[in-house]
Amino acid sequence: MKNLLILEHPLIQELLTKLRDKKTSQIPFRKGLVTLGRIMGYELIKTMSIKKIKVETPIGQADGVEIPDRDNIVIVQILRASMPFVEGLIKAFPEAKMGVVSAKRIEGSNDSDFRFKIEMDYMNVPEISQDTILLLADPMLASGSTLLKVIDELLKLGNPKRLIVAAVIASPLGVERLFQNFPQAELIVAALDPSLNDNGYIVPGLGDAGDRAFGG
Ligand code: URA
Q1: How far is the CA of 91 from the centre of ligand 1 (A)?
Q2: Residue of 201, 203, 212 with the most ligand 1 atoms within 8 Å of its CB, for mutation
Q3: For ligand 1, is residue 201 a contact (CB within 6 Å)?
Q4: How many domains is the chain partitioned into structurally?
Q5: pLDDT of residue 73
Q6: Which residue's CA is the closest to the ligand 1 atom numbered 7?
Q7: How far is the CA of 106 from the CAs of 40, 83, 118, in angstroms?
């Protein structure tokens, strides 16, 4: 799948392993999500165009680079599980503008295909222009119901240059729905897990990311 990037970096995989471990308690879990966000952000930079420049050192001229799109990022965090993840991402993109969306699925509202009803009660997002790299952070891409609803609303505000979703773990159903509905989207993840359980949680996953990061 051309728009799906699964990060195999051993450090990312080690952090993910710690997050998956049910023995990892709240604070190390939250810190792990922050670190993972930062490193995934650095990996995302590898997909950005580079401008070659010259730089004057105190004793000569050297070849150098700039990454202009780092200044065009709008990170949108979907409350609440994405908060620590975004705290990490923003370290890789310190110039990013920030949007906040409160959206969650209504547990038990799903049909047999895991289409959940979504409750979305707050959205405050900076301007989205044709230069914007729109980066949505949602640690768990499970059924995709929340993400699709949020993207729908965001694209009413503007047409970004790139639409990137950063997730820690995605399910095949979530990936399929994302690309079916938004073929222009790009997805960057630490892992793709095989399935969902009856409640729409990713298996084996890491459990409820919000509960594990902030207490149930
Ligand atoms: N949200 C979570 O936190 N975990 C899942 O597995 C699915 C949705």
Answers
A1: 24
A2: 201
A3: yes
A4: 1
A5: 98
A6: 201
A7: 29, 20, 6
User: Could you tell me the CA-to-CA distances from 23 to 17, 127, 204 in Å, in that order?
Assistant: 11, 41, 15
Q: DSSP letter at 125?
A: -
DSSP codes of every residue in 27-39:
HHHHHHHHHHHHH
Cβ(169)–Cβ(189) below 8 Å: yes
Cβ of residue 169 lying under 6 Å from some atom of ligand 1: no
Query: Do 148 and 177 meet the contact criterion of CB atoms below 8 Å apart?
Result: yes
Residue 1: the pLDDT is: 66
Q: What would the pLDDT profile of 87-125 be if each residue is shown by its tens digit? A: 999 999 999 999 999 998 888 888 888 888 889 999 999
Residue numbers of the domain that contains 205: 4-47+71-104+116-214
Q: Looking at the DSSP assignment, which residues form a beta bridge with residue 52?
A: 65
In a domain, 203, yes or no: yes
11 in a structural domain? yes
- In the reported structure, the alpha carbon of residue 139 is separated from the centroid of ligand 1 by a whole-number distance in angstroms of 8
Q: Is the pLDDT of residue 184 over 90?
A: yes
Cα–Cα dist 148/204, whole Å: 23
CATH number at residue 151: 3.40.50.2020
